[in-house]
Amino acid sequence: MRARLPRMTAPARLSHRPLQGGLRRLLALVLVVALLPVGSSFALAGCGDDTQASKTEIALRLGLAYGAFKRYIYTPAQAGQFKSGAEGRKTAIAKAAVAGAFTARMLQKAKEEADQDPAFAAYSDKIVATIASLGGLTALLQGGTVNLSDITGGLGDLDSLVSAGEVLGIKPDLDQEISAADLVNPLK
Fold first, then answer.
1. 84: DSSP letter
2. CA-wise closest residue to 103 among 143, 83, 74
3. Residue 75: helix, strand or coil by DSSP?
4. What distance lies between CA 5 and its chain's CA centroid?
């Protein structure tokens, strides 16, 4: 006959149950409250000079607006693509109308950035005046009735806006290449 050995029991296992819903939420809330002051001080420490950030943002938007205007409005107008009977006239006018709206949007974003800093209050007013003058030009483009003198006046308005910005230290890149895809999907 065989001798029976005592049965060995496995050691008690620790339960690895997931945290219950209420306890999980409480733990998350405690972590958020504990890290909130640390995170906000890091965020504020990384900001740097707000005026320099505003200048950079305004310069970016102004450069994009200028590049789109010059490539899709001024250059085709000089080439005579907006004249009646010109080859590719409808496409050129459609691109110019989209570029006009893009230019106005970039200038509006530059104005919003200028409004954030009191040092650029007067410059913000100049941006508004340029938007208004280019708004009439965009309407002419959409209607298909535009002449070179209107477009040259719009470029002059942009040039004077750039000159006024350079006095304040805003130096946009005026040689930016803007693609048709950039017109449709600009910076947010």
1. T
2. 74
3. helix
4. 78
Listed as own residue / partner, the contacts of 177-180 with beta carbons closer than 8 Å and 24 or more positions apart are 177/67, 177/71, 178/64, 178/67, 178/68, 178/71, 178/72, 178/99, 178/102, 180/95, 180/98
Cα dihedral 156, 164, 46, 48, rounded to 10, equals 170
The pLDDT tens digits of the residues spanning 125-173 come to 999 999 998 888 877 777 767 788 888 888 999 999 999 999 999 999 8
Q: Give the residue from 102, 109, 107 showing the smallest Cα distance to 73.
A: 102
At 54-100, the pLDDT tens digits run: 888 999 999 999 999 999 999 999 998 988 888 988 898 889 888 98
117 sits in the region (left: phi over 0; alpha: psi -120 to 50; else beta) called beta
Distance CA(158)–CA(153), nearest Å, equals 9
Break the chain into its structural domains and give their ranges: 50-171
The answer to whether the beta carbons of residues 106 and 162 sit under 8 Å apart is no
Segment 112-124 shows an average pLDDT of 89
Residue type for 65, please?
A
CA 107: distance to chain centroid? 11
Chain mean position to CA 27:
37
φ, ψ for residue 79, nearest 5 deg: -80, -5
pLDDT (0 to 100) of residue 123: 92
